[in-house]
Amino acid sequence: MVEAIEGVPRSGLSLVVKASIKEHYNPEIAKLTSAIAEITAMPDVILDANMDENFEKLKAGKDVWSSWQEYFGRAIIEYFNDGLKAQLESQGFKGDDMLQEGLAEALTAKTFKIRIVDILEKGSVNETLVKDGVCYLQVGSVLEALRDTC
User: Fold this and answer.
1) Burial call 46-85: b when 16+ CB within 10 Å, e when fewer
2) Mean pLDDT of 14-19
3) Closest-CA residue to 18 (of 67, 70, 75, 68)
4) Does residue 8 carry a pLDDT above 60?
5) Is 122 exposed, middle or buried (0-12, 13-18, 19+ CB in 10 A)?
6) Taking residues 120-135, what's their average pLDDT?
7) Could you give the CA distance from residue 36 to residue 20 in angstroms, rounded to a whole number?
8) CB–CB of 111/90 below 8 Å?
9) Beta carbons of 135 and 67 less than 8 angstroms apart
10) How confident is the model at residue 67, as a pLDDT?
11) What is the DSSP string of 84-149?
12) Angle at which helices 26-40 and 97-106 cross, to 10°
């Protein structure tokens, strides 16, 4: 049934991706946002999964395996958890006023946003870029975007 429904041309997230988000992302995001807010001392921090844009980028990719959509929600939550949260903790942001203040000055939009890009500025698989008050957690390879977290 899902295959038949997915075969109908339409815009937006697929049913499989929506199910993955519901199962893996939705149950975790509020708790994770709260934890990152505490670590950064930004109570109104925003974790922007950028799902529609990232979905379209992955969908257009030629190097993605057939079952990638099943892992979409889990991959996004893991980038925020094992990527962002773990790095903030390991770099000592929690309880360090100077680090927190510096981050707040750079992140005027108080937003961490995941995005898949064709070319990274630093030439690795992942990179962090602060631009226009947003911290972008960038992934350079469409395939690596999911494979790294699954």
Assistant:
1) ebbbbbeebbebbeebeebeeebbbbbbbbbbbbbbebbb
2) 89
3) 70
4) no
5) exposed
6) 87
7) 22
8) no
9) no
10) 76
11) IIHHHHHTT-TT-HHHHHHHHHH-TT-EEEEEE-SS-SSSSSEEEEEETTEEEEEE--HHHHHHTT
12) 110
DSSP character for 79? Answer: I
Q: Which comes out higher in pLDDT, residue 123 or 28?
A: 28
**C-alpha to C-alpha distance for 58 and 28, rounded to whole angstroms:** 22
Question: Model's pTM, two decimal places?
Answer: 0.85
Instruction: Give dist(CA 53, CA 145) in Å, integer.
Output: 13
State the CB neighbour count (10 A cutoff) for residue 148.
16
Residue burial 14-41, b: 16+ Cβ < 10 Å; e: rest: bebbbbbbeebbeebbeebbebbbebbb
For residue 60, give the H/E element and its range.
helix 51-60
Which DSSP category does 26 fall into?
Answer: H
The pair phi, psi for residue 67, each rounded to 5°, is: -100, 20
Flag whether pLDDT at 35 surpasses 60: yes
